[in-house]
């Protein structure tokens, strides 16, 4: 996933400040866009979706060191404007659990809001091209969205000029050879709220270059994106059958709420 796990005091102040500045602009724009929304519907929906994403992003598939997202599903359900608020709430809660520093909340909000908003846009576009088939559309939107947001995350890491990762943070993948060994040595699944993960330091032992970091992230991400695409595709397909209104897409029987 594209969530930055850096603790406080690692990233340069200018990058942290930029993240918070963009976040404040996005939150202001979102609040303006939602000023006429049906709050009786919107507020509970934001709360439920935020809780769902927090639970998902706190869970890790250990062998591939991949954190589940459900951000595309969240974006499809709440839309781009509300997605900014969901992203902020989610990242504040995750920071309080030690899932990345408090100062990185701004950058993480930009990252996650980008995932949700892009997922929403791609889902709507693909559904129109396919003339339905929401499950397939959601799966394709998930893979494309996570590729873009992961690339954005790698760009942020490169700009920070901070040693991004060490061998302990790549699951069963050896970053030197990009090969797997003993994939279940640390188990299959972990919840990082119950068992907080170890945060990377400024220059951890065995730190790798940004280029190698990108190769590792894309190698592991491709597996994770496929799993997540299947998961979100199945969930969206089910919701389209039982509660199409939650998808906010006229072609699927859902109505746009304002």
Description:
This protein has a single domain (13-252), classed as Arp2/3 complex 21 kDa subunit ARPC3 (Orthogonal Bundle). A hairpin with a 4-residue loop joins strand 3 and strand 4. The longest helix has 33 residues, at 210-242. It has a three-stranded antiparallel β-sheet. A two-stranded antiparallel sheet has the order 3-4. Residues 198-206 and 254-258 have low confidence and may be disordered. It contains six helices and five strands. The protein starts with 12 loop residues before the first helix and ends in a 16-residue tail after the last helix. The protein has 258 residues and is mainly alpha-helical. Helices cover 59% and strands 5% of the residues.
List the helices and strands and how they pair.
Elements: H1 13-33, H2 39-57, E1 59-61, E2 66-67, H3 71-96, H4 105-130, H5 134-160, E3 173-174, E4 179-180, E5 189-191, H6 210-242
Antiparallel strand pairs: 1-2, 1-5, 3-4
Please give the count of helices: 6
Look up the CATH topology.
Arp2/3 complex 21 kDa subunit ARPC3
Query: What is the distance, rounded to the nearest whole angstrom, between the alpha carbons of the first and last residues?
Result: 31 Å
State the CATH class. Answer: Mainly Alpha
Q: What's the story with the biggest beta sheet?
A: 3 strands, antiparallel
Approximate shape: globular
Indicate the structural class: mainly alpha
Strand content: under 5%
Looking at the overall shape, the CATH architecture is Orthogonal Bundle
């Amino acid at each position: 996933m594209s969530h930055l796990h850096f603790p406080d005091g690692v990233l340069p102040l200018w990058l942290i400040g930029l993240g918070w500045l963009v976040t404040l602009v996005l939150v202001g724009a979102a609040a303006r866009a939602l000023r006429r929304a049906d709050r009786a519907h919107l507020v509970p929906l934001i709360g439920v979706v935020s809780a769902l994403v927090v639970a998902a992003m706190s869970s890790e598939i250990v062998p591939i060191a991949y954190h589940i997202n459900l951000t595309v599903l969240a974006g499809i359900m709440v839309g781009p404007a509300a997605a900014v608020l969901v992203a902020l709430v989610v990242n504040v809660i995750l920071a309080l659990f030690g899932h990345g520093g408090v100062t990185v909340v701004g950058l993480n909000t930009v990252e996650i809001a980008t995932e949700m908003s892009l997922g929403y846009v791609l889902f709507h576009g693909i559904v129109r091209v396919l003339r339905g088939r929401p499950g397939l559309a959601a799966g394709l939107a998930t893979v494309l969205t996570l590729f873009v947001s992961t690339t954005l995350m790698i760009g942020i890491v490169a700009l920070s000029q901070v040693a991004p990762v060490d061998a302990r943070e790549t699951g069963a993948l050896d970053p030197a050879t990009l090969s797997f060994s003993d994939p279940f040595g640390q188990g299959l699944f972990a919840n990082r709220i119950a068992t907080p993960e170890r945060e990377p330091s400024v220059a951890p032992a065995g730190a790798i270059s940004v280029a190698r970091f990108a190769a590792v992230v894309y190698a592991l991400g491709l597996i994770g994106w496929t799993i997540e695409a299947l998961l979100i595709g199945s969930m969206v397909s089910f919701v389209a059958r039982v509660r199409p209104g939650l998808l906010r897409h006229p072609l699927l029987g859902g109505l746009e709420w304002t």
